[in-house]
Each structure stands twice: as C-alpha cells, then as structure tokens.
Amino acid sequence: MDDSKQLLFDMNGRLPALKYTLPMALQHLVAMIVGCVTPAIIISSIAGLNNSMRILLIQSSLVCAALSTLLQLFGITRFCGARLPLIMGVSFAYLATMQDIASTTGIATIFGAQIIGGTIAIVIGIFAKQLQRLFPPLITGTVVFTIGLSLYPTAITYMAGGSASASFGSWQNWTVAIFTLICVTTLNHFGKGMLKLASILLGIAAGYIFSALFGMVDLSAVKDAGVFSLPEIAPFGIRFEFSSSLAFTVLFAINAVQAIGDMSATTIGGMNREPSGNELRGGIIGFGLSNLISAVFGGLPNATYSQNVGIVSSTKVTNRKVLATTAAMLLIAGLIPKFSALLTTIPQCVLGGATVSVFASIAMTGMKLVAMQPMSYRNTSIVGLSAALGMGVSMVSESLSQFPEWVTMVFASSPVVIAAIVAILLNIILPDENRNS
User: Fold this and answer.
1) How far is residue 418's CA from residue 385's CA, in Å, rounded to a whole number?
2) pTM of this prediction?
3) Alpha-carbon distance 167 to 85, whole Å?
4) Contact 292, 119 (CB under 8 A)
5) Which residues, 6+ apart, have CB-to-CB distance to 304 below 8 Å?
6) Tens digit of pLDDT for each residue in 324-370?
7) How far apart are CA 400 and CA 391, in angstroms?
C-alpha cells in the first residue's frame, strides 16, 4: 500500500484530492443525499408551500446538513463537536411528527419545536454519562423499530401518488413505484461496490426516467429557479407551541442517544477504540447546537447518519478531509436553487418506491438492536407493549379525543413518543433477572 493511500486511515492525513478524497467523498454523498432531501420534499408538500418556498426548504436543509457535518468534524470550542468522522443530515426520525405539525399548526411550529429540542439535546450532552443508562440498546432499538413502522404509511401514500394527487392510487403511479422499488432492491442485493451503495439514488434516477414516459415530470420549476442564492434567516417563521415542543423534546432525547450509538460505532468500527467522554459530550452538544442553527436558517432537524457510520466502519476510512469534502458538496448543492428545483420535480410515486426500503431498513435496524439483548419474557414485554401502545394510539388518534388538544398532538401524532416513554418506564419498573442474580 502506498503512503498516500495509508493516509485514508489517518483522521488528519493530507490526501491527494482527485485520487482518493473525491471518490470516497462521493461514496458518502450518494449514501445520504436522498435521505437528506426527501423529508423536505414531503413536508413542503404537506405544508402547502409554493414552489419557490419548497425549493428554499430543500436548499436550507442541504446547507444546514453541510454546516452540521463540519461542526462535528472540526468542532467550534473544546466542548462542542465530536471531532469524529460523522455525517449529519435531515433525519426521518422526526418525519411523522413533522407531518402532523405541518398539517395542523403550520411549518413555523416545526422550527420553534426544533429550537426547544436542540436546547434539550445540549443539556443531555452536558449530562451524557449520567443519562446514558436510561437508554440501553433494548430501549433505543424499540424506539428505532417504532420509527420505521410509523413511516410505512408515508411510503405507501407516496407510492400511490401522494394524498394531494388527482391520480392517487392510479395504475400508472403504482407501476412507476414498483419499478423503482425493483430497481432499488435489485441493485441492493445484486450490485457491488458503488452500484450497491448508490442503489437508492440510482433507483430514483431510473424511476424518474421511467415516470417521464408517463408524462409525470414537469421541469418548469427548474427553468424558473435561480442559479445561486444564500440561505435566509427564519424564511418560514418560528412559532412556539407547547405540544409540538414537548413531542420534539422526546424525539431529540432519543436522537441524542442514537448519536451516542453512532459515535460508538464509528470509533469501534473505524478506530478500534471506544469514544472518549469528551467526544460523546461534544458530539451531543454539537448535535443540539447545529439544530438551533438549522432552525434559525430554515433547515429541518438533523441527526447523525447511520448509513455513513456503516461506511466508515466497513472501509476504516476515517480521514476528516474525505467527509469535509462531502460536506462541501452538500453546501454547494444547497446554494444552487436549480439543483433543489430539480429535486422537487421527482414524482411522489418514485420517492415512495425508493423510500419504502429505507423505512424498512430503519425498522430492521431497531430489531437488530433489540435482538442483541436476551429475548426474555421481560424484554419481549417491554418491546411488545411499547410498540403496541405507540402504534395503536397513533393509528386510532380519536381514542384521545376527550383529552385536551395538546395531549392528542403529543401522544397521537407519532407512535415514537408513547413507545419511548413506555419502554423507559418498563425498563426501570420491571425486575431484571440478570441484574438480580
């Protein structure tokens, strides 16, 4: 192995840009960019934003993901930023709750709740070591599993064309969605190298071309979009509302714990060591601060990206220059409205066909975490009751109709809140045979 290639495994090594840095950075980009922009496309549709504001929401989310990644890579103070090879992006974990907020109290409420959630994450970061014991893998696995389940209706709605579509449920929408899903699944299981890694991106590209044959693609938004524009301060407004903020408080607490898991997976898989206390604390504080900044500039909530953690763990490439190049690409893409406008032209059935596999993988990631623990009667009770109550109440939201409106917003808008609370309480209350022996 030549000396320059060896620098891939050195966090601070100075790599040749074209030979090693760019290809590895592209690998990280294709693994995360679909996940980063899809929530913005979905939320803009639910919130009823006009075309220019939809483009702006995608732009802001890309720019804020880039800034959040750079913050984690290099830090801004001794206490903020993990200084580890991590990629940050808009998280699907917030999607179900954001959909409910956007459709009831408006998109501005998302950013108010995000500020509260980011502040909570900073507090959790300060006390990370003390609070970590409340979230063992059994609890985080249950929550992640529930998040995946909660997103299935979104994927199916999009596969059918999107709820606002006049052709909702048409055979054309389902044909395109299934074609996209087949492409993604084929590449994921039979592709190798970059083909496998970029399976979702390539599947969307194939579905996009196929959908154009049905006249589903309208490029007028790209023609009208500008070439360059900077993010704006509070472009969608910021509004604080109690129930939304409470729901985000729980979600941010859960994602702070997931960040601990991702940082641990990064250092164990990529560096053969456990993360230090300062790295964990700085990473979670950076997670909170980056969300405060994102809220101010209209970027949706972000979190560490597990798929990129997987790349670092499998390749052992920990060089921060590689991931900083990925962040630079995100930043450039976010500053070009025409690129964001092109993303808004992707038909919803194509997004549905691609993201249903993403949501399935989220649920299965949760199941893997759960399966790491003994399947005792205690543990299966925690997982089963938490998921049952969380999913059950959210699917029958009218079951809380006699309660105050804020109760419905917090506990019925997304199954994650109830599932997390029930799992934590049961884990504390139910006797642990192993602990007593």
Assistant:
1) 10
2) 0.80
3) 44
4) yes
5) 72, 86, 87, 88, 258, 259, 262, 263, 283, 287
6) 999 999 999 999 999 888 888 889 899 889 888 878 877 887 888 88
7) 14
